[in-house]
User: What shape does this take?
Amino acid sequence: MISNSAMLPSACFKLGWETEMIKGLGLLTAAGLLAAVGAASPARADKLDDIINSGTLRCAVTLDFPPMGSRDADNNPVGFDVDTCNDLAKALGVKPVIVETPFPQRIPALLSGKADIGVASTSNTLERAKTIGFSNPYFVFKFDILARKGAGITDYKSQKGHSVGSTAGTYEALALEKDVKAWNDPHGSFHPYQSQADVFLALSQGQIDATDVTSTVAAAIVQSGKYPNLEITGEAPYEDDYVCLIALRGEQGVLNYLNLFISHQVRTGRYQELYNKWVGPGKAPDLTIPGVYE
Assistant: This one.
């Protein structure tokens, strides 16, 4: 017969093992509870919340691109894009802040945190979409040839053999530079500029003979009378340029809101109102793309 004292070490070992097992289960249960609490915690505020909580909306806007963006006689920002930023800020219940941004700096302004969104007539190219997020289109551009009088530019193809230029990084600049290279004329050349103002100055001074710009800009320049030696000599055969509001690529909350905002601008007639105000009488361009979404 084995004494109780002989059984004690084995019993103690068993009791110790069970105690440790219970402790382990307790730790697992605690870890599960912590995980559950973590899962139930509110998600991190996104950029849209940040904008609303800050009380301001910083819009990157190009101000040498009339009638979309420019400055009036009192140096105040004005234009279609400026009013669009103001409308968006009003919808969000915050104060608009216009951040003057040249065309080449539109995307860097967002990536660096200098601006919250871009309202700067940005073409929705696939290459740019690798870096930045796009809303649905909020405007559509067509293109004209703006030439210096007496330069011999009568239509698009007559730019071959001439010195031409445009604002670096824009839709029309990429298209024109591509064609100049394809024409392969030793007398022809393409010159990129940092701003539209630089392009028009170079054109009026004879540094280049022509530029291809949006029809809205071409009409605004001719009507302004600032450059009396410039004229519209025809249409540039580019595809319609659908431009979008831009935001950081990962900020889906902001992009969703921008899409809804554009929808409301159209549905309420505000889009047409701004078109009449800044571009002129007539039906505002259809923002839908035939065969894609209508």
